[in-house]
Amino acid sequence: MKTLRIKVYGIVQGVGMRPVVARHATRCGITGTVSNLGPYVEIFAQGEDDKVDEFIRLIEEEPPKRAAILKVDARPFDNAPVYENFEIIESAKTSGEIFVSPDIAICDECLEELFDKNNRRYLHPFINCTCCGPRLTILDALPYDRERTSMKEFPMCEKCASEYYDPATRRYDAQPVCCNDCGPEVFILDDPEERRGRDAIVHARKILAEGGVVAVKGIGGFHLACDAKNEDAVLRLRQLKHRPAKPFAVMMRDLDTVKRNCFVTDLQEEIIKGHQKPILLLKKKADSDLAADIAPDNPTVGVMLPYAPLQSLLFDYDDEITMTDCLVMTSGNVAGLPICRDDEGARREIAGFCDAILTHNRKIRIRADDSVMDFYDGKPYMIRRSRGYAPLPYMMTNNFEGSVVAYGGELKNTFCIGVNNLFYPSSYIGDLTDLKGKAALTESVGRMQVLLETKPSLAVCDLHPRYNSSEAAEESGLPLVRVQHHYAHILSCMAENDYFGECIGVSFDGTGYGTDGTIWGGEIMRCDLNGFDRLFSIKPFLQTGGDIASREGWRIAVSMLIDIYGDEAESICGKLDLIRKGSFKVYKTMHDGKVNSVVSTSAGRLFDAVSAILGIRLESSFEGEAATSLMYRAMEHGQEDMTADYALIEGDVLATDKIVKNLVEARLAGEDVNQLAYRFHYLLAKAISEAVILKAGDIRTAALSGGCYQNTLLLDLSKKMLEEKGFKVLIHSLIPPNDGGISLGQAVYGMNKLMNGGI
Ligand SMILES: [Zn+2]
Ligand SMILES: [Zn+2]
Question: Ligand 1 centre from 11 Cα, in Å?
């Protein structure tokens, strides 16, 4: 017989935790109590030793569907009274660590009610319950109750109130509970005919069915939607949004539709149906009838299921309209900018992209773009961590103490607030290339500080002097530390793996500001929490043409070929079709005079250049296009071991110029492009692993991060080669390897600095 005091940390509020715990207790014959203390659920469990152990196992392995348990802390409790039964007790909120729930996709029970003619919430676009519905995106402050959400404008009707206060109903304590009588209302924005409610939904469906484009307000912002099977509709949306090739995400009506169009593993099925409903990158089937222009030249497609009831109503409604089962659902924004979340923003920014705007009067407090998830080695590999995941914290075992705010990078911005050993990466803000992005960042940081009831004493930002994110950090008025971009990537990978020892970091990325004022991006560095040493980089090259070079890989290629071949470069560029006839001299002059040029070790640009040299993509219409195409071509070739008959390391650089030279000559000799694409990945990974081994000394841990590690072929090759040499290799899973992940690394760095009195 023993008594344990058990604390369950994580998302344990508003997810039906206590009834489930009580049920497990009854099943195991345990007596005691369970209460909700805000940051955690506290359980006193009394019973035979093995029964108590079984009870803990059940809590860990069979929690409520929507709970996210971070830690179960069980300790013996002396002087316990004898409990006669197991009781749920009401308890007061205590302050301390705070867990703000992410938004939760519509649950199966609510979905069933939505389409049940006899239910009083039949076709109600805002149906939700204790287990599902918006959370973060409607929240003003904690504790999470209706008064502090954007639902406070909608007083509950009598029927809803009786459900809300009755523990026996599915809507007990469900803050956003509402119905057709008392809930928010959908309407067509600026509609001369003032269509509202049912008329608005029918109107939107009609436009979609006829091949038009509709902006739809969702949970965390607006989407632009059109029929994903209608080639003309998709092309028109591309023209309206000035987005020639970047893949569109597709929302499919149900799992059967997904399986008809894509290959789905068991794990993918579980996640796509789950309560977070991210966009999953799935392999398309050959007979999929999606429009080819959804994701041109791309074997995968980003797919999600409806997660807001309004989205389900777009697919099914009691009108006579025949609807498609696949809708494009792309973020309603101007390329790269934060997603629109209110009618004003929609009018200003996306009204020109669509035929109608289907909106509603429930305000979105915090933006949340859709999360995007790839897979590697049978596990999730996050590309964008946002709705459904943010702001779920990471709990570190390190004894951190204090409060810091990290402002992230300039592209794919997220920020991260660290409070003691909990780190809360934010939802996705977007690119901060203009002041709107910066304003969105500043506003969101303020909101999260309120929600987490914390006042950071230190701000952290990137080393780049002109980043808008760095400016936002400066304007916070807090003491500020700056962290080198690629070091922050490695720190984020270490933090995600809860590892704080020494490691060799491989940070392969687009661009970031180096400590020497040049552009870095293909770096191998010895790292720990206190700092880094740059051990190797890829061979520096001249990035000519300023910002254009980041879209036009052929410019980098020409620059590299001039370095490698000198005067011979002209004829080689001609043979490779890299450059228009006669214009070589212009570039040569610019290159030699270093006009509008910076020295760069950007791995991202190296990928772009190789894609151009192999004739796959001369330029990119969106970030990563050339590099992604290069990866798919390499994957078509399949696995093969290779050797190089030249040294892959020269001094402190990876001999990437030799690899490029080798590829140029092989291509001119007529070798297969897919094979060469693979050779590039293979030899680059080999150079990386050789470099790591050369300087690792006693260190036996490596960390792989940076945007280039979205490339799962490079990831796979690098990881396996290092593991073969006895390294433990840390990789990302739910924190993106790209710039969306660096705020976590910055926050951990700042926290360490704060504790060691460096400030
Ligand atoms: Zn529900
Ligand atoms: Zn109601």
Answer: 16
Q: Please identify which residue in the block is written with the tokens 């009588």.
A: 181
**What would the pLDDT profile of 687-719 be if each residue is shown by its tens digit?**
999 999 999 999 999 999 999 999 999 999 999
From the CA of 65, the nearest ligand is: 1
Give the predicted TM-score (pTM) of the model: 0.90
Q: What is the pLDDT of residue 69?
A: 81
Expressed in angstroms and rounded, the spacing between residue 149 Cα and the centre of ligand 2 is 16
Q: Which ligand is nearest to the CA of 132?
A: 1
Query: Over 148-190, what HEC string results?
Result: HEHHHHCCCCHHHHHHHHCCCCCCCCCCCCCCCCCCCCEEECC
Q: What is the pLDDT of residues 460-508, one digit of tens each?
A: 999 998 899 999 999 999 999 999 999 999 999 999 999 999 999 999 9
- Of the pLDDT bands very low, low, confident and very high (cuts 50, 70, 90), residue 148 is confident
In a 13 Å sphere around the CA of 713, the CA atoms on its Cβ side amount to 23
CATH class of segment(s) 186-360: alpha beta
42 vs 261, more confident: 261
Q: Which residues surround ligand 1, an ion (CB under 5 A)?
A: 107, 110, 129, 132
φ, ψ of residue 726 in degrees (nearest 5): 90, 10
For residue 422, report the distance from its CA to the centre of ligand 2, in Å.
37
How many angstroms is it from 119 CA to the middle of ligand 2?
13
Could you tell me the fold of the domain covering 2-89? Alpha-Beta Plaits (3.30.70)
In CATH, the architecture of 538-676 is: Orthogonal Bundle (1.10)
Residues lying with their CB under 5 A of ligand 2, a single-atom ion: 157, 160, 179, 181-182
Print burial letters for 637-653: b (CB count within 10 Å at least 16), e (below 16): beeeeeeeeeebbeeeb
498-502: long-range contacts (C-beta < 8 A, 24 or more apart)? Answer: 498/394, 498/396, 498/397, 498/398, 499/701, 499/703, 499/730, 500/396, 500/398, 500/528, 500/529, 501/528, 501/701, 502/526, 502/527, 502/528, 502/699, 502/701
State the Rg of the chain over Cα: 27
CATH fold, domain 393-537+677-759, is: Nucleotidyltransferase; domain 5 (3.30.420)
Residue 158 corresponds to which amino acid? E
Please state the domain extents for the chain: 2-89, 186-360, 393-537+677-759, 538-676
Of the listed ligands, the closest to the CA of 108 is 1
Distance 306 CA to ligand 2 centre (A): 23
Examine domains 393-537+677-759 and 538-676 and report if their fold is the same.
no
Q: What is the Å distance from ligand 2's center to 129 Cα? A: 12
Ligand nearest, relative to CA of residue 180: 2
Q: How far is the CA of 709 from the centre of ligand 1 (A)?
A: 37
Measure 350 CA to ligand 2 centroid, in angstroms.
32
